[in-house]
Amino acid sequence: MHIINKLGLHARPAAMLVQSVARFKSSIKILKEDQEVDGKSIMGIMTLAAAYDSTLRIMVDGSDEKEATQAIIDLFASGFGEK
Amino acid sequence: MVEKANILQGIPASSGIAIGNVFLLEEDEDYCLVHREIPKEGIKKEVARFKDSLTKTRADMLATQEKIHKTLGKEYARLADAYLLILEDPLITRNVVKRISEGVNAEYALFRILEQVIRSFEMIDDEYFRERKHDIQDVGKKIMHNLMGKQKRSLAEIAHESIVVAHNLTPADTIALRENMIKGFATNVGGKTSHTAIVAQGLEIPAVVGLKNITAQVKEGDTLIIDGNQGVVIINPVQEILDNYRREQEIQQAQVRELEKLKDLPAQTTDGHRVVIAANIENPNEVKSILAHGAEGVGLYRTEFLYFNRTTLPTEEEHYESYREVVQKMMPYSVIIRTMDLGGDKLADLGLEGFTKEDNPFLGLRAIRLCIKYPHIFKTQLRAILRASALGRVKIMYPMISGVGEIREANALLQEAKDELKKEGKAFDDKIEIGAMIEVPSAALSADLIAREVDFLSLGTNDLIQYTLAVDRINENVASLYDPFHPSILRLIKSVIEAGHNAGKWVGICGEIAGDPNLSMILVGLGINEFSVSPGQISKIKKVIRNTSLLEAKTLIQEIFSSNDWEEAVRKIKKHPIP
Hints:
The complex is a heterodimer of chains A (83) and B (579).
Chain A: H1 2-6, H2 11-21, E1 27-32, E2 35-38, H3 42-49, E3 57-61, H4 65-77
Antiparallel strand pairs in A: 1-2, 1-3
Helix pairs in contact in A: 2-3, 2-4
Chain B: E1 6-9, E2 11-14, E3 17-24, H1 40-72, H2 74-87, H3 90-101, H4 106-122, H5 127-148, E4 162-166, H6 171-179, E5 184-187, H7 195-203, E6 207-209, H8 214-217, E7 223-227, E8 232-235, H9 239-261, E9 276-281, H10 287-292, E10 298-302, H11 316-330, E11 334-338, H12 344-349, H13 367-373, H14 375-389, E12 393-398, H15 404-424, E13 433-438, H16 441-445, H17 447-451, E14 456-459, H18 461-469, H19 487-502, E15 506-509, H20 517-526, E16 530-533, H21 535-546, H22 550-562, H23 566-575
Parallel strand pairs in B: 3-4, 4-5, 5-6, 9-10, 9-16, 10-11, 11-12, 12-13, 13-14, 14-15, 15-16
Antiparallel strand pairs in B: 1-8, 2-6, 3-7, 7-8
């Protein structure tokens, strides 16, 4: 159990987000203040991920935007399993 | 001629002491970065060349991941997923290709894109995320090697008994070190949480990282001491220091060997009193490890993890699958499954209706109270536990019991679940044993009444101590007041055990103090029948128990309880060397 906790727990939310949206055709943009990153880019998300206090705006655009948006909402609502 | 000893302080990455000669791994990042213009007709070919290098890199990474999986198992191998995700990042798959299409060679395009990313990472405040830049650099290097057709220098060249000194090591390198029996390593960069450090820990190779510039401070053949516990590296130590470290190394290695020997020996005092040492788990994956450490059962299966990482309540099948796996793997040992110990806030996230935020969750609607209030949630879990009981030896434990009423209500719901299963023709152990966690002071003080309603008691000392001393152990202003040796705590433990035994029931303990070797004698003397601890502690407390007699332990208890000065008595115990 101790081993599992040590392993990249912080990078998990970023990885979970990327893996959950990768399959959708829509483009995903994540905005924080004046920074904008591609929601499918793990490196992009990691550069934003440090700021836990700020609010993020997420823009979804494409043929499957409804499903993609729901997937993102579900993920955030579950607290990435971190609560 | 005695060379000047140099003592460097770095970051301890993997514990243990290693002594050997330096093998300096040249930093093969010294490729010449070429910047070429690609004419329009050549762009398609260049893009294809880049995509090929990505394919090859991906194949290499998967092969390394497979090796890690074979040597260390699933959890470690999952770390490599981060590298694979970076490889799939649009910044690499899309932006680099775009850059190439502007008419430059793949190496240059890759370099420029990654340069930007790394620069943004260097500006991140959080140290953990800043460190991730090494992962990105590693991935970049791998792609670059495949682009340039470079062959990485084989670590197999290194003589055994060496200590590798390098700028940085990748997890793949670390596995190669183990295969080549290298004693330890030291690097310029890296951190405690890097993938490399974690793999080194798993392989038990001592390592110190973050030494900034050690590659420039040593030369081939220097003698090096790696102290992976302190994060210290000593270059060309004088004979005295060398001797001290050799001695210390032997002592540490002997300790590890001794503890390993204990694995299959019973937890028995010198005068033949036997106790059971079981382990705490959260997850079916941990069963292999606890058995390897010599656990004689699962004394506490925390079931909360089944409720994490999801948006809906776990189904009965999901509960059942986890319990089944553990119960079957643990045969013939017993598994004590604790019913869900969570608060309403967590369940509200999973769709629980009608829950309002509490000011005082620690004193609020959680655990057994919540389960009794929402029987459908409770029965889902109970049904799954009952069904699993048909496959092995299962016991149920109710958390946060504050009185007899709760036990009766919980047992009534358990009976309902049993009746349902009977009607459905599903098998279960009708005589399944029930236990109550004694962690709320009211339960400790009425343990005699509670003992009549259950088959066993289990002391949950973490919360018992917090509630009794009114201390939040996470609050650094008062954490020092959290004292397991406080007379109130030892008295409560003593009276709970007596109450249990008077009612003919056994008493276990599953809080943190159960795994503390300093308290083992006291707990044995007080009459604990079963200890449930984290696997790493099993041998440690077994060692103490095997070197004590019950008589000594009981005498110790008498001394404490009859002394006029409790503090003095405790101080004496703490000074007493543990066997």
